[in-house]
Amino acid sequence: METLSDELLLESYYKAISLNLSPDFLSLFEEEIHKRSLSHKIKESV
Asked: Is residue 30 helix, strand or coil?
């Protein structure tokens, strides 16, 4: 995931949510989002 741009990371995260993918898989995105200090860009409704 390190090669993804911040924008693509967030888009992929939202797509994974919309596809109702595994919580374990979503947590990988969330960890990377937090690591990059992008947590403030995650919508509150998620």
From this structure: helix
pLDDT reported for residue 38: 95
pLDDT band at 1 (very low <50, low <70, confident <90, very high): confident
Report CA dihedral (16, 18, 21, 25) to the nearest 10 degrees.
30
Distance of alpha carbon 40 from alpha carbon 24, whole angstroms: 21
Determine the 3-state secondary structure of 3 from DSSP. Answer: coil
Q: Which residues contact 17 (CB under 8 A, 6 or more apart)?
A: 26, 46
Structure tokens at 19: 């596809």
